[in-house]
Amino acid sequence: MRTTLILSCLCLFLAACKKNNQEVSTPQAITQENLEKLHLLGFSHENVTIDEGEYIVEGDIRISQTEMNSLPDAKFLRVGSEEQYRTFNLVSGLPRTITVSLSSRLSSYSAALDEALNRYNALSLLITFQRVSSGADIALVRGNGNYLASAGFPSGGEPYSQVKINQNAIGNQPLGTVASIIAHELGHCIGFRHTDYMSRQFSCGGQAVNEGASSVGAVNIPGTPTGPDPNSWMLACIGAGQNRPFNANDRTALNFLY
């Protein structure tokens, strides 16, 4: 394995945070008009591809044609010059409990899921994660593709309903790494974008690409550093075997939103 992997994102910088299952609009070509729409939504229009009828931006986030034609409310958190958080949509109806289930085909990741949920619940947020056997708000299911795990953003105030776990791609990563992957995907499900969206070069290497900040501005978070933070759970890329529990800035961001 290479020394850096995409988180949600992981797996050789290829990822696919799938979007809303209800959306059926299918893009046929990457036109300049569509690239401009993506940019207005606050996403990078560099290296955009199409997969399964959706646009893949920023290496791992899926945007449907329906979403691309809209401009939803967005809430931004700015942490320093490179460490950035941004939400595309948020979960509403707070306080609330979000239930999570794990497919029987992924039973080997049970302890990692528990660890990921414990990381969130230890913060005493207005959202609490709870495991259930079926009928969950977010279902962890087995997936296949060019990603280790994939998810999407909330819609209509509800968390994204599914996290796909690519067991073949994850391989023998330790519990802490798998828990970090799951926590990262749950972060997308409740509305978080990559910490380093202003420059994916920070965690991924390669060319510096600004994923965009849209046109609605940013909210400075008091008490956070002015330089980049290498340990956030929502960084776009992570080293193989790395464990990323929430750091101080992650906790600030989570408490700001929830």
> Which CATH class is shown?
Alpha Beta
Strand content: 15-25%
- Main sheet: which strands, in order across? 8-7-9-11-10
Reading the helices and strands in chain order gives EHEEEHEEEHEEEEHHHEH
The share of residues in helices is 10-25%
Please mark out the parts with pLDDT under 50 across 5 or more consecutive residues, or reply none.
Answer: 1-25, 209-221
The span between the termini is 36 Å
Domains counted in the coordinates: how many?
Answer: 1
Write out the CATH superfamily name.
Collagenase (Catalytic Domain)
- In DSSP terms (H or I, runs of 4 or more residues), the helix count works out at 7
Explain this structure.
By secondary structure, this protein is of the alpha/beta class. The chain has a single domain, classed as Collagenase (Catalytic Domain). It has 7 helices and 12 strands. The strands form 4 sheets. Strands 8-7-9-11-10 form a 5-stranded mixed sheet, covered by helices on one side. The longest helix is centred in the C-terminal third of the chain and has 15 residues. The N and C termini lie far apart (36 Å).
Concise synopsis of the structure shown:
This protein has helices at residues 32-40, 65-68, 110-121, 167-170, 175-189, 201-204, 248-257, and strands spanning 4-6, 49-51, 54-57, 61-63, 75-78, 84-87, 96-102, 127-131, 138-142, 149-150, 162-165, 237-239.
Topology at a glance:
Elements: E1 4-6, H1 32-40, E2 49-51, E3 54-57, E4 61-63, H2 65-68, E5 75-78, E6 84-87, E7 96-102, H3 110-121, E8 127-131, E9 138-142, E10 149-150, E11 162-165, H4 167-170, H5 175-189, H6 201-204, E12 237-239, H7 248-257
Parallel strand pairs: 7-8, 7-9, 9-11
Antiparallel strand pairs: 1-12, 2-3, 3-4, 5-6, 10-11
Helix pairs in contact: 3-5
